[in-house]
Amino acid sequence: MTDSPTSAAAGAPPPSGFDDAGFDDLVTGLDRWSGSLPDWPPARRVRAEWEEVAARLDRARRELSRVLVVGVIGGTGTGKSTLVNALAGRDVSPAGDVARPTTVAPVVVVARDVDCSWLSLDGVGARVVISDSPAVANIVLVDCPDPDTQGPERESNGSAPPHRPSDTNHNRDLLERILPACDVLLLVATAQKYRSWSVAREVAAFAPGRPLLFVQTHASRDPDIRDDWRRELERQGIVAPAIHRVDGVEATRRAVAGIGPEEGFAALVQAIDEELVGRAARRVRRTGALDLAGWFLRQAKVHLDPLRQPVAALGAGIASQRGRLEGLMGNAVAGKLKASRPAWQRIMQDELVERWQGGPFAMFLHGIASLGALWPRLRAGGLVGRVLAGQGVPHVPSGDGAWQSIEEVGLSEAEVEQSRSILVGLAARAAIGEPMTGRARLDDSAVQVSVGTLMERTGNWLVGGIDRLVAQRRDRSDSPLVRTACELVFSGVIAAVLGRAAWNFFYGHLWMGRPVGGLGFLEEALVWIVMLGLVLRFLLFARMRAGLDRDIAGLVTRLPGARLVDPFLQDFATAAGKVSTFLDAGDDLSGRHEALSARIEEGRSSLGRLKGPVA
Amino acid sequence: MATPGFPHSTAGDSRDPPLPASRYAAWAGSVGELCQLVESLTPLAATIGAPPPPDAEWYGQLFGKLRPQVIREPVLVVAVCGGTNTGKSLITNVLVGGEISRSVPEAARTRCAVASLPRGLAAGTDLAALFPGFTPRPWSSGDDALGGGEAGDDLLIYRDDPGGRQPARLILVDTPDVDGTLRENWQRAEAVRNACDVIIAVLTQQKYNDAAVRDFFAAAAAASKSLIVVFNMVNWPAQRERIAGWLATFNAETGAAPLAVYAVAHDFARAEAGTIEFFPLPELTGGVAGAAGPVDLAAVLAGVDFDRIKLRAMEGAFRVVLDPVTGMGGWLARMEASSRDWQEARKVLAEEARVRVELPSAPRELVWSEIWDWLEPRRSLVDINLSRVYRAAGRGMAWVGRRVGIGRTAAEKQDDFATVELAALKQALAEFIDRLDGACRRDPRLGSLLGEILVNGDRASWYADLERRHGELPMVSEDYRAFVRGELDRFSRENPKFLQVLLTGLSLGSVARPCITVGLMVAGAAAVPAAAAASHGLTTLVHTAGDYVVWAVAPLAGEGVLGLTMAGLKPLIERLFAGWSAERSRVLTETLHDVVLGSTLEEIDRRAGAAARPEVARARRLLHDCGREFSR
User: Fold this and answer.
1) In this complex, which of B212, B242, B459 lies closest to A197 when CB atoms are compared?
2) Are strands B508-513 and B354-358 parallel, antiparallel or unpaired?
3) A 164-203 residues inside an 8 A Cβ radius of B
4) Which of A180, A282, B127, B269 could staple B136 via S-S, CB 3.0–4.6 A?
5) CB distance from A20 to chain B under 8 Å?
6) How far is B523 from chain A (nearest CA, A)?
7) B7-64 pLDDT, tens digit each
8) Among B307, B326, B345, where does a domain finish?
């Protein structure tokens, strides 16, 4: 043993055979998926189809081991009843050429010991007959009415159509009530009827999830058309590995006379025995169920595929409308920030003064700042103004005021409504509408909430952005070098003035005896000191202010990352996300179904099945 | 050999006068005109949701039978029809006396109509016109019949009668099946059925009561085609007794009364050799059971009374067209009903698609300066000097205002105004779209027409268009200038005494807040007395109705109060302001009309007016006249 068990398992192809647990998972997944988006009409449609399919899958699972019900279907006069009689070994269903249609009520053939009480064929007038024939010992055979003698539904255009005998013919209606109870369809055709449109229509409706057996009858009269029939079936999306060819009349004669069957009929009986009985029945049910799930997924794909592009377009539309609104907002916010120079100045000054303590120039700056603080600060209006003034995010007024309160950040009711109106159109293309998304015009409560969220987010974003911006600038001016230089220059001048004053006093007055020069010099010196201080302060702030516009522009480019306008388009984004998730989940389930199908592909029987859509 | 009930050409003993083709040639004018009317109405009928006429029996008879045959040299068309694999081609070949259409074991293989023509007929006959919808192609081999293409590529293979015994005016046509899975085969068979006079119905014990087969022959019976029934593949004579029952069912279901019934035995060897035999069953058509020997069906066909059968078929066709319920009249009624539904839809649209545009107050100096310009030459020197003083003072005040940051320049004011105005227009557009959505939900017909625009239209480009138009709109257009001068001229002509009043009124600031209603299909809406009247190429279906309100009157000078109350002045001022606003809002109607709706409104109008079209009335009249003449 060289390989470890784990590596062998990983490298080996998946084991073939039916994966019950995997199929159960798939069914659970399909159930959850189909019901996961009830607000989206295409998903509702998928759900409605699923509910029909689910009932059948559920029944197949519950009744996995009971005998199969084989429905015999075909055009009138093709010999369905004759074939049923041959299989039953006696005349159980009227057959003949006296009048068409011959069979007007279904005949159910069961073996003596088979309990078919579960077979619900109420209201179709079915007649149950017991047969001891070995051919039907382990199946339930149903001789169905034909689909081709009942006329098309007439539209009532006011005038009663002329009465015809066939107006009372409901064979097709009966057939369509019987076939849902059948597990397998035995399709009977003759050279005249294997290309019948009315039969093809019924087969297309009932073949999903039901394996098919094909029999050409009237073998003694008609040429062999099986190859051409197979081509026709392929055109209808049906694979037919085997088609039997029998003569029902001859087979009945032999069965009644007790003679051994002819070759074609024996092959049909053998096929029934091998493909539809015992373990094979379980396999038929399981593969039928898997095929049914596959058919459901294909149908769902047919409904959903055309919507993929519109859903993607909606996603792109949301992105582009978000970009448009953010652009408007960015311009307005940048303009507002640039226009608020005094506010910037004050922020920077507060910031700098707070950090510079000690030293004569610092004291000078404090002095100027406290002088400025004597002026009452005007109550700033608007979001940007309040944020710059450090006054927090204003409260959102109700009614029209809500819109007015965000006009300064470039958003207006008209702009938001324009974006939403465009998105309503894109959403409609993807079959998305109310209640998944709202209308173009937001109602009052939505406006209140959205504007509130926008204000709060914008306020927080602005506070953060401005803080960062100011901190950067402060750090630029707050280097020890600049600080030392400023302090040195300022202290130097003060020192020079004080030195000069001391010289005048000690040397000039006390030593030389000159009169005291008075306060004139000090006054003059003070003016010079203040002027120097102001110049230094101006240079300092000029340095801090330099490139502010560029930095504001930089701040605004980071606006999209903050997702500020999302509240206005939230319903569309959520809906598009949900629908995309739904489509992806469907793809995932299709992949899982394919994997399950691949496992059993090799073990397929000779029964026919619906493989794809009609070519 | 005479078959009872079968009209034979018995030249000598007929008591009826000869029945020349001229009897129905007289209908040629009516038929031609009816066809023209139907053709001109068909596209309209299709758009308003009336059933497409080509699906109807009457259409097939009118265009497939009456129009091609009413004026032509009468020929008798015999068609062999039936379900798949019933042996139509085999029977055709036997009747022709040579292989013209290949007969194969597989079903539904005959894809083309195959016609056997009497010698010399092909040269003198326009087959394409005689069999509308088909492309005639000369025969090259029996395989031609198998090679038909997809739907729409409908071939008519024709060959001169190989045996040379076909009567001079008889055309024999083999047709594709009427019940197979290829629907184009059905349509080809139906087209031949419409054109023919005699149908050889090929039935079998499997296929005499199928719904598809029944419906096909019921339509033939309704159009009075002469029917010959051939039961093929009969276990002869074992099933002979059954045939009466089958035929009774067939007749009861289709309403047919066959002229003759034949049985063909199921005999593979004879079929292979092309020597099948037709056993007559005269007792089934009211005759006496005769000798059981086979007959030559081709000879029987040759001996029928062409003219009587032809006339019967033509009359039958016309009867189908004239039927008040299922014929052309019924179609016209459906069309009128659909048209009424569209009228309803138009009403819904007029109710729903109406939006009030709340425009911002007009910058009053724009309107006033137009009025000033008009007044300037009419004022006295004192007035002018006085007003110059006022203006200078006003300018000074404005300058101060601007300096302290609470005043705006005129250009800034106009920009502000334009921004607010554009927002109002955009909002109106959004509301309009929303209302159109609502109208579509209310009326599915509107949904069918407008849904495409609303769902697949590029809404972003609508807004871009509105912005572009608004951007291009000058604050005061030449149209508006002309309008103001006209209004003022008219006013001063009518009220010469009030000129002075007008002058004093000018010191007033009258601010009109306009409210413009933009609506679709508003019947009798009061058109705005504005430059909108001079709108370029605007449909009359998009109205701008100006219901404006004077929002505030702010007197600047005491004497002005007096002026405004004077009769005539207030309405004038209001009109001048409203006209300006209406002209501004015109960009919205232009966008709606040119970009959003396109020609949809005209289309709705056209559909709503379909029933009132002269063609409908003319068709009704013609049908009535023909019906009266026909019943005489």
Assistant:
1) B212
2) unpaired
3) 164-166, 190-198, 200
4) B127
5) no
6) 28
7) 555 444 444 444 455 678 788 889 999 999 999 999 989 888 888 888 889 999 999 9
8) B326
